[in-house]
Amino acid sequence: MLHDLGKAKPEFQAYLQGERRSEPHSGEGARYAAEKLGMAVIGKLLAYAIAGHHAGLPNGIVPVRGRPTTPLNERIKQAETLDLPPGIDLPQLNSPPAPLAGIDEDNLWNFRLHFFTRMLFSTLVDADFLETEAFYDRIEGRQSPRGWNGTLERLREALDAHLAAFGPPKKGSINAERARILAHVRAKAGHEPGLFSLTVPTGGGKTLTSLSFALDHAIAHGLERVIYVIPYVSIIEQTAAVFRTALRDDDAVLEHHASFDWDGLTDEAETERLRLAAQNWDRPVIVTTAVQFFESLFANRPGKCRKLHRLAKSVIILDEAQMLPLHLLRPCLAALKELAQGYGASVVFCTATQPALKKGAGGDGFPAPEGLDPAEVTELAPDPPRLYEAFRRVRVEDAGGIDDTALAEALTAREQVLAIVNSRPHARALFDRLEGAEGRAVLTTWMTPAHRRAVLADVRQRLKDGRPMRLVATSLIEAGVDVDFPCVWREAAGIDSIAQAAGRCNREGKRKSGEVIVFRSGEEFATPPELAQFAEIGRQVLEQHKDPLSLEAVRAYFRELFWRRGKEELDAVKVGEKTGIMTALAEAGNQFDFPFADIAHAFRLIEDGALPLVIRGGRWGMPDAEMDRLRHVPHAGAIARAFQPYQVSVSPSLRAELLRLGAASWWREDDFGPQFAMLENARLYDEAAGFSPDAPEDLGGMIL
């Protein structure tokens, strides 16, 4: 009722009649809420949502780094004082809204108020978008393409039929253990909504088990949807495909991430339905990335925020929960707890290696107030330590220091072996040392996605056929890539990385035990500074634990990592002039001057700032025929999606140097400005190893 109060101004009415230019209208409702509503706190929170319903949630006061640039206090001062038009009566706000009822004013009080404002903002902007959309549907006489016709019960029936099709498992087999896990987890679906953990080893079937629990739990408690959050874009497509197959309803599963191929959909009507559903997550099963999920939670723009209220009364599954971002871990945990405590959601921390996120006595718990209360987290898996032993498929050996000559000899001596190193230059150097070895390959992020897919297809086929396969890779192969080597060499890193590497070894359990060998490189390829702390703590755990992948060893690793970093490094972004989101909110004081715009500006899961470089021609670049087609495409978004399979990510400084030397150029700069950087020097992309900027004399000249 208040968000468009400013449209009652004579100036806005003149704008509607075409008599003057556009007139701002959101400030008046914000001023009315802040000044005239009985409950001062709620009035201020309403004012944020009303003032920001077009431009985005503002800061309460200056300074402002993000957008919108005008803070709430200035917006209110600039707005006119208006009375309500005749016939509009506001409901009485004489008690706290449900998410804030019964909450003590503790050290998270300001966080809870700010979070409630975000959810309120989401409901307002989504309703505003939907009402506008419905208006145009009516005047154009068309039926809305929105909505999904189905029930969670029907999806569960399809899932049950899918699971039953596997038949009864053989007694004592891995499949029998998976069936036991599934039955045990589903039996806990009746637990009241809240916080859960699902500690299941790699190979334990946690994907379909967690989906089964989520549907059972949602049906039992009247929850509305399942949101599956995955840290890696590389496996989100395969997870969504598994869900569609299991649920037998493609329309029920919404896959939402930056790389989704909208152009690959052939049904125009279905494409429009999915686009609309992605705007506000209007589907029963959402599969999304951690970047999309968490950055939306702390965003301030209407388009990004309008889906947030869909998180209420949802089952949120965090796959690979140990991958939560360390530099933003405290605000991420605070948001997850608040969704469970205030908004009826259930959150499942799903992983083989549970991070030490629970509170505890002395140095044994999470070192910040956002830690999870152990009494409030329900473990769903049956006896996780026993499960770890049942699914243990590798033994870990610490080989100490080794130079690349000896390492290359060790890899050549194996028929099928994977080596994972900590940097792209090291991967390329080790790959070159294997020259002449049968079945050698390399996999890094300096290869286009099309190139990487082809390499992985060849790797899998060679492994299946029993042929020689010597693969050198960076940590990208640990991002859920499904390969199964009998032996894996892993350069020193954190225990979580070593555990992920172990997931590529004896994955199918075909051997009695696989080998994971941890090594330290020589000075030429010393541990990168950003990984040094992880590797050092990992070394300590290797020395102190007979099995460094056991549940206790993993807990010890995370405990030490969190305590070594301290609570400041677990919330380390700059919010205006303050360090840390939780600090900025706590210091907003009892005037609730929350820095929404600055938080949105600061909150980035991925900090490296890498930029795309498009490869064209050759085996792995954009084909010439496709390039010709794109010359006539008018929309930058469609072009960006078409380029995704044929680009690599490079640092801003390297891309600038390539452009300066003429080794790269802006494509269609007259149409889109400096947006699409295209590699011009074909010699810089090797058909076996990908992009290689290590030869400075080749950066310029030799133009394709």
Descriptive account of the structure:
With 704 residues, the protein is α/β, with parallel strands linked by helices. It has four domains: 5-139, no CATH class; 153-351 and 369-387, 3-Layer(aba) Sandwich (Rossmann fold); 393-548, P-loop containing nucleotide triphosphate hydrolases (Rossmann fold); 611-698, no CATH class. 42% of the residues lie in helices and 13% in strands. A hairpin with a 2-residue loop joins β14 and β15. The chain is globular, with a radius of gyration of 27 Å. Mean pLDDT is 89; it is low at 259-267 and 699-704.
Provide a concise account of the structure shown.
This protein is an alpha/beta fold and 704 residues long. Helices cover 42% and strands 13% of the residues.
Features:
alpha/beta, 704 residues, 7-stranded parallel sheet, Rossmann fold, 6-stranded parallel sheet, disordered C terminus, 26 helices
Kindly provide the radius of gyration, computed on alpha-carbon positions and rounded to a whole number of angstroms: 27 Å
Beta-strand content bin: 5-15%
Oligomer: single chain
Number of strand elements: 21
The CATH homologous superfamily of the largest domain is called P-loop containing nucleotide triphosphate hydrolases
Q: Output the structural class.
A: alpha/beta
CATH topology of the largest domain, by name, is: Rossmann fold
Instruction: Give the CA-based shape.
Output: globular
Summarize model confidence as the mean pLDDT: 89
Strand order of the largest sheet: 3-4-2-5-6-1-7
Distance between the termini: 61 Å
Largest sheet: 7 strands, parallel
| CATH level-1 class of the largest domain | Alpha Beta
Figure out the total of helices: 26
- List unreliable stretches of 5+ residues: 259-267, 699-704
Count of the separate structural domains: 4
Q: Do you know the CATH architecture of the largest domain?
A: 3-Layer(aba) Sandwich
Question: Into which percent range does the helicity of residues fall?
Answer: 40-55%
